[in-house]
Amino acid sequence: MNILLKSAKIVCPENKELHLKKRDILIKKGVIEKIGVSVETPASIKVIDKENLHVSLGWFDSSVSFGEPGLEERETIANGLYTAGKSGFTDIVLNPNTNPVPDTSSDVVFLKERGHGMATKIYPLGTLTKNANGVELAELFDMKNAGAVAFYDFKKQVSNPNLLKIALLYAQNFDGLVYSFPQDGNIKGNGVAHEGEMSTKLGLKGIPALSEELQIARDLFILEYTGGKMHIPTLSSAGSVKLIAEAKKKGLDITCSVAVHNLLFSDESLNEFDSHFKVSPPLRTKSDSKALIKGLKNGTIDFVTSDHIPMDIEHKRVEFDNAKSGSLGLESAFGGLNTIFDLEETISFLTKGRSRYQIEAPKLKEGSKACLTLFNPDKEYTFETKDILSTSKNSMFLGSTLKGKVYGIINNDQSTL
Q: Which residue segments constitute the domains of the chain, with CATH numbers given?
């Protein structure tokens, strides 16, 4: 694949010589051959010359769900990775949100093989327990050797504290990363929305912030006792941010993430009972969103994710109480973040996180493999169904005004331009 990017404005704070400079970038056979003010166009090469063209290192998303195997009606791996690439993501961590779940090394190998040769690279998570049922540890070591980057019973709490303790102790033998979903199911009960003024007004069963904060507090106590590495995905409350900040001051090896939609939306969006806004953890208050934004800016929250969860129409176009949780996020992640942060912050958030999963970070320099995202950061538009490339269409961002359009990616000697 040979491409010449013409007059691309480079957004790369790590490279002070090139940051915010306009340059031509020549890519041959997937490698950056030359970066210059004006690079002569070689014969028979594809020239990319787009409106307000910006380029950064490829973006990374730590929480993406598709469906294959077993739930292909929601999303296939092939179309999911194409969607991720067109949305600017060169690397994604794939959630174990399938049927059956990936709890053996052969399952992990299958997922990696299905993503082989695509522009966006796939890094699977294996489940923490067999069948993700929370009873017995899965084949963690074998899955790690097969390519699993961490272990997670998707959107399920680790109910048994002793099981989490054993997992953290065992995973230290091979530098494994253990996830713990921040929600106490007993306190959540049958809740479907944040417990507060809005849920009371609408007559919806509430999920108190306590359900998240109590689970996190317990897990951090266990981590302090065992050592090891833990990741807590998708925080949603101000209290959770405080707990993580205190744990980091103690020196615990803990990371966490936040979903884009929890930064942009609050439980006030539920006033029309639109099931697109039903997610787990739930949308909380505006003050929680402000605390999450602050936590992301000051580094308490380590990275941001789309928390992309395709869901077929049969599970969304029902009463709010009965709808399944989840919203698409890949296609709207950049445009959403870019409305609340400046461009450099947005790109910084979208490129962080790889090191936690022992994924090699790309470089923007001559001689390096091209791992790039191309975009126009200034284009404002209303997000509509036509902007959704996923098989499912369950996005809470429909009708929102977003800022920034992605052109595509160059990665793995492939392109989605």
A: 2-54+366-415 (2.30.40.10), 58-357 (3.20.20.140)
